[in-house]
Every structure is written in C-alpha cells, then in structure tokens.
Amino acid sequence: MTKIDVGVLGATGMVGQQFVSRLENHPWFNVAWLAASERSEGKQYADASAWRLPTPMPDAVRHLTVDACIPGRGPKVVFSALDAGVAGEAEEAFARAGHIVLSNARNHRMDPLIPLLVPEINSDHLSLLAEQRRVKGWSGAIVTNPNCSTVVLVMALAPLQRFGLKSAVISTMQAVSGAGYPGVPSYDILGNLVPYIGGEEEKIETETLKILGSDGGRTRHTMVVSAHTNRVPVIDGHTMTVSVQVEAKAELDDVRAAFQGFVGRPQELKLPTAPIPAILLRDEPNRPQPRLDSDFGGGMAVSVGRLRTCPVLSFRFVALGHNTVRGAAGASILNAELMHAELQCLS
Ligand code: NAP
C-alpha cells in the first residue's frame, strides 16, 4: 500500500514531537512536511526542535526544512499541535484551502459542526463532516480530539453508559508535560501541588457531555460532571479519582465485567494504533500509577483500578492515561486511522 503523505503544524513543540515520533514507521502515513512559527521557519528540524522525548529523533525528519504554517503548501492531511493562541484561525484557513486538519487545540472542540472524536466512543459523530462542509463552505475539514484529562475520563465512563450515567465527581492529578515546554516553573511544582489549571475544569465538564451526546454531540448528554483539577510533579500521565452515580441498580461485578468487556470501533477494525485492551482493569490495591502504567498499550490505553462501591454515589475508581499520547498526538493519529478506514477520505 502506498503511504499517505501527512504534515504536522506546530511540529517543534511537545505534542508536535510526539506526532513526529509516533508517525515514524506508521503503516499508513508518511511525514512529508513540518511547519511551525516564524522562529523556526527555514531551519532544519533538528535545529528548530529542542527534542525532549526519550526516543531519538527519527532520521527521516532531521534534515527536513521547517516551513511556515501557510495553507496550500503541505499535504492534504495535516495534524495540528499548534499553540491555542494561533490554532483557531490557522486551522480554519487550512480547512478552507482543502486540508483535512486533525486538531489537538481547544479552539474548535465545542463547535457544533466539528466532531470531538474519541474513536472507541463516538465514531458516528463523523457524520457531522458532510454538514460541516456544506455550512462552512470548506473543501477540507477539521476534526478534533479532547482535552488530555477529558479523554481519560470519557474512556473510563464509556463502559458504564449501559447503566445510565447520572453524575460524576472527579479530581485530577495532572502531569507537567500537559502544560507544554517549559511549562510550570520548577520552583512552583517541585515538592508541591498546584490546585488550579486555568480553564481545565470547564473543558472536562463540557467536552465530556458533547462526546457522550447524540446527533454528533449537538444533543448533550444529560449527566452532570463536577471536576477538580490539580497539577502535580509527575512528568507524564494524568491520574484521576472518579466517583460516579448510575441510574440502574448495578452490582460491582456488573461494572467489573463492563470494563473488562469494553471494545470500541478501533479494536473491531484493528486500526494500527488501537490499544487492545482499550481499558485495562487492574486489581492491585496501589495501581494504576503514572510512572509504571502510562505507557500501557503504547500510551493509548486507559488504566482503571481501585474499583469499589461509593458510600455517596454508586461506584468509585482511579483512572490513568498518557496525556501527550492518548491525550494528544496518539488520539489525533487514531482519529485519522478511523477516518481512513471508515470514510476513505484522506488519500
Ligand atoms: P508547545 O510545546 O508550546 O508547542 C507549540 C507549537 O506551536 C510549536 O511548534 C510552536 O512553534 C508553534 N507555534 C507557536 N506560535 C506559532 C505561530 N504564531 N505560528 C505558527 N506556529 C506557532 O505546546 P504543546 O504542549 O505541544 O501543545 C500544542 C497544542 O496541543 C496546544 O494547543 C495545547 O493546548 C494542545 N494540547 C497539549 C497537550 C499536552 O499534554 N501538552 C495535550 C492536549 C492538547 P515554534 O517552536 O516555532 O515556536
């Protein structure tokens, strides 16, 4: 099979580097174009990007010249890891010029004509694309993935939908890599915890209802979500404690079976980066932990543990996912794989 050429907008940043790394040796996609700000334009990627991943920079991109983010220059398919300050207008301009943009930024997530996609949960939301094209007049498209905490929460809630989700109270413990580089000053975070992440609680509370909603997310799910967000001195991996109220009378064993039997569209289609299992239910009393469990399933799986009944709501558990993989670049790549498999619209 001939690989599909793809580009990366914001290729030099934390999430951009994850794209470049995870697309190396991808069976369907080939990184052909890298773009970033004027600061990086014209430099070789190895010079423009301060590489911060533990795996080496792929040889194939070291000598690629970084371009400016100008629509029409790159391939049809572009992954966007642009800073939110510029992503809104830039991604729209790319979609207008015929590119299919797989966006990580927050800017377009809540647009009623733009899918906020988690392939295991709401692959049917891709049906919005026909109306998006008609109403917005774009020859391309924008598809987004959720905030890095939201995706962990919705993956953990999805198996419980069969019991009727009523409400959830969550507290996050979020890694510093979620704030980009250089991110939170070391003096603020070392030996400390910061009980505030700007805009994060609202994103979790609203994005969850769109993803679990119907009619492409335009009819929101009726559950109520209350989120507390905290930054902790962890490098990678967002952990959260979740208490959830369900409508049906369910036993702990029913919930356990729901987690263990959870299979989504990516697993059915055997997409190249689909984690199997999508959710790992752990029995140890002290897992999941970010240092030990974030990379499970290539960073694409969500780990759930400490499942037990809740004396206030119905059930409670801990959930963990890799914030720059499942919460960013890996999620966009899985979205692209789903679009290629279901719609054949990328080539
Ligand atoms: P980052 O490390 O700060 O990288 C930002 C990227 O945007 C860089 O490549 C930068 O290029 C580029 N950029 C900045 N201003 C630009 C401009 N005016 N024109 C063109 N390119 C410009 O940020 P990040 O952590 O990778 O996050 C990227 C996006 O993903 C953000 O929207 C963020 O909210 C979202 N996100 C991040 C995470 C996470 O865990 N980190 C998770 C989910 C979503 P230069 O290097 O040339 O300046």
Structure description:
This protein is of the alpha/beta class. It has two domains: 4-147 and 328-343, 3-Layer(aba) Sandwich (Rossmann fold); 150-322, Dihydrodipicolinate Reductase, domain 2 (2-Layer Sandwich), CATH 3.30.360. 31% of the residues lie in helices and 20% in strands. The chain is built from 13 helices and twelve strands. It has helices spanning 14-23, 45-48, 59-62, 84-96, 119-122, 128-136, 148-157, 186-189, 200-211, 252-260, 265-269, 290-293, 325-343, and strands spanning 4-9, 29-36, 67-68, 77-80, 100-103, 141-144, 165-173, 224-228, 238-246, 279-281, 302-309, 315-321. The protein has a six-stranded parallel beta sheet, sandwiched between helices. The chain has a six-stranded mixed beta sheet with strand order 8-7-9-12-11-10. Strand 11 (302-309) and strand 12 form a beta hairpin. The protein is globular, with a radius of gyration of 19 Å. Residues 10-16, 36-37, 39-40, 69, 81-84, 86-87, 104-106, 148, 177-178, 180-181, 323-324, 327-328 line the site of NADP nicotinamide-adenine-dinucleotide phosphate. NADP nicotinamide-adenine-dinucleotide phosphate binds next to helix 1, helix 4 and helix 13.
Provide the fold topology.
Blueprint: E1 4-9, H1 14-23, E2 29-36, H2 45-48, H3 59-62, E3 67-68, E4 77-80, H4 84-96, E5 100-103, H5 119-122, H6 128-136, E6 141-144, H7 148-157, E7 165-173, H8 186-189, H9 200-211, E8 224-228, E9 238-246, H10 252-260, H11 265-269, E10 279-281, H12 290-293, E11 302-309, E12 315-321, H13 325-343
Parallel strand pairs: 1-2, 1-4, 2-3, 4-5, 5-6, 7-8, 10-11
Antiparallel strand pairs: 7-9, 9-12, 11-12
Helix pairs in contact: 1-13, 7-9
The structure holds NADP nicotinamide-adenine-dinucleotide phosphate (NAP).
